[in-house]
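ok so I'm stuck.
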Amino acid sequence: MGQVSRDDEQWMRCALALAQRARDIDEVPIGAVLVRGSKVLGQGWNQSIASTDPSAHAEIVALRQAAARLQNYRLVDTTLYVTKEPCVMCAGAIVHARVKRVVFGAFDAKSGAAGSVFDLLRHHALNHQCEIEHGVLEQNCRVLLVEFFKARRPGRNIQIEDLDC
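replied:
not stuck anymore, here's the structure
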């Protein structure tokens, strides 16, 4: 893991604000921002339920928006900030898009694909590997997820490791 910068924290705060938008529409609160330099190219929050689209994860929404804006599916020299470790589906799209760097807050101990369960973003057999930073504003990201699931599952002692998001 490299050095986390103030910019990383700033962009993660943006991703957290997007995660709150997901929470407000009763979606799992995950947000993502894709940037190049200091410019936002795409942003998203989980919308699978609202859009009846199983692929409408925050990361995919942000990647689609950026690709449409740039008129190119290759999103080289970009950084994706996401509040929770990407899943296998999202990791595949991130690799395919050639995202340079992924910065996330909370690990996903059940289905994460950036080092916890799988490490697709850095897998040597793939034609692209991403740089990864983790733990940026991790507590803020964790609390948002845990509080969301506590509200949905009253009476249970919910820990981040228990979540299947």
